[in-house]
Amino acid sequence: DSGVTQTPKHLITATGQRVTLRCSPRSGDLSVYWYQQSLDQGLQFLIQYYNGEERAKGNILERFSAQQFPDLHSELNLSSLELGDSALYFCASSSPLPEAFFGQGTRLTVV
Amino acid sequence: AQSVTQLGSHVSVSEGALVLLRCNYSSSVPPYLFWYVQYPNQGLQLLLKYTSAATLVKGINGFEAEFKKSETSFHLTKPSAHMSDAAEYFCAVRDSGNTPLVFGKGTRLSVIA
């Protein structure tokens, strides 16, 4: 058990809809990262938050947004969903250690 | 920008044989380097990490990796493969302790009985 909790584990939704993925980091970790894993793109970094502030942005679409709350949990919002958004979405946390610890992921299926 | 190259998207070995998974990185500063393993329908689990201490790093499940700065490599090895080692392996790099990890595309390891 990595200590990082992601909910829900599975999500099936229709095109055009909006979903919210939730992540609770390990106790004491200030950084939260979101990654998207798909067969053709591999593991793509989306966005990082550190202690409530956006720290780094990767290949995140404008239809996607995230935030980190005062209790350090984070949410990733995906809107106007397309079939191509179907993927595994991982949350990871770190700090102060250099390694990141990953949650079990949310499998999103857009139909 | 940092990048990680994993040679071979799929490696197949016999049970008991040597496992060698290759990873090369590009980084302008001494990096942190990691190997993660992903079993089917699971998250990524840290196998081992290099953080500028010893160049030969030992991890869990009998795996180890050697940091070679001159070759910008961090190959993962295990002397004797076990059936339970079948999984996807990812090499990752980061410049400092608070920047995102950059991952390679992964290598799927199959172990044949």
Q: In a nutshell, what does this entry contain?
A:
The complex is a heterodimer of chains A (111) and B (113). With 111 residues, chain A is mostly beta strands.
Task: Name some characteristics of this structure.
heterodimer, A: 111 residues, mainly beta, 4-stranded antiparallel β-sheet, 11 strands, globular, B: mainly beta, 55% strand
Characterise this structure.
The complex is a heterodimer of chains A (111) and B (113). Chain A is an all-beta fold and 111 residues long. In chain A, 0% of the residues lie in helices and 54% in strands. Chain A has no helices and 11 strands. Chain A has strands at residues 5-7, 10-13, 19-24, 31-38, 42-50, 53-57, 64-68, 74-78, 87-94, 101-102, 106-110. In chain A, strands 2, 4, 5, 6, 9, 10 and 11 form a 7-stranded mixed beta sheet that branches. The termini of chain A are far apart. In chain B, β4 (32-38) and β5 form a beta hairpin. Chain B has 113 residues and is mostly beta strands. Chain B is 0% helix and 55% strand. The radius of gyration of chain B is 13 Å and the shape is globular. Chain A binds chain B through residues 2, 4, 31, 33, 35, 42-43, 45, 48, 50, 55-56, 58, 90, 92, 94-105, and chain B through 32, 34, 36, 42-46, 49, 51, 90, 94, 96-106.
Task: List how many beta strands of chain B DSSP finds.
Answer: 11
Beta fraction of chain B: over 45%
| Tally of helical runs of chain B | 0
Q: What is the ordering of alpha helices and beta strands of chain B?
A: EEEEEEEEEEE
Question: Taking Cα atoms only, what radius of gyration of chain B do you get, to the nearest Å?
Answer: 13 Å
Largest beta-sheet details of chain B: 6 strands, mixed
Shape of chain B: globular
Percent helix of chain A, as a range, is under 10%
* Terminal residue distance of chain A: 31 Å
Main beta sheet strand tally, sense and closure of chain A: 7 strands, mixed
Broad structural category of chain A: mainly beta
Mean pLDDT over all positions of chain A: 95
What is the share of helical residues of chain B?
Answer: under 10%
Count of β-strands of chain A: 11
